[in-house]
Design brief:
This protein has twelve helices and no strands. The chain is mostly helical and about 200 residues long. The protein has one domain.
Amino acid sequence: MVRHPAAFAASLKRLGWWHPFQHFLKQTMLMQRHLKPYRAEIASKPQDIVDQAAIIWKSLHSVLLAYLDSHPNWLVKKHEVLSSNLVAELRDLYETLGLEWSAMVEEKVVRYTRSGNPVDAPKGTVHHIRRDSVANMTRWKETLTEEEIARVYEITQPISSSYYHNKDWGIFAQPSIIASSKEIVSRENCPQAMEP
């Protein structure tokens, strides 16, 4: 299953999950075979959790793309496609996988994903199974700032474009938003640049 890069970043931000990039760097074969194009980004050990999430997403999904090239029979679904119409999508998935779909399965899917369920997990909770799956699909737009979303887009775009179109990013894929976010970051890092 593939999840939107900004949604992935929003989840890591919500949970406060940092990644020890040193773990990647210590795995010579992993770095040589799969993550070589991202060595510089990984070695920079970004301190921002959203940047970390974007680099992790790009790294993992570039490997997935490589595996899909050599395993075209693998089935990959986008989280957002499943969430948008869970009963129909899961029924199709069950059929594809040769699993039995039943009234009991459908009732549980509806109960755990219906409107009216919480959109977010309770604070401090990692796994909260009952969620409003449709509302949860775009929750990242409220969790991340515009500048964070623009950074996730810019970092992941070379790989995410294989899974997501610019329309899946909304206004955040527009060059003016990206340029604006770079200007904000530049001002934050160099306050003297603001002075006339």
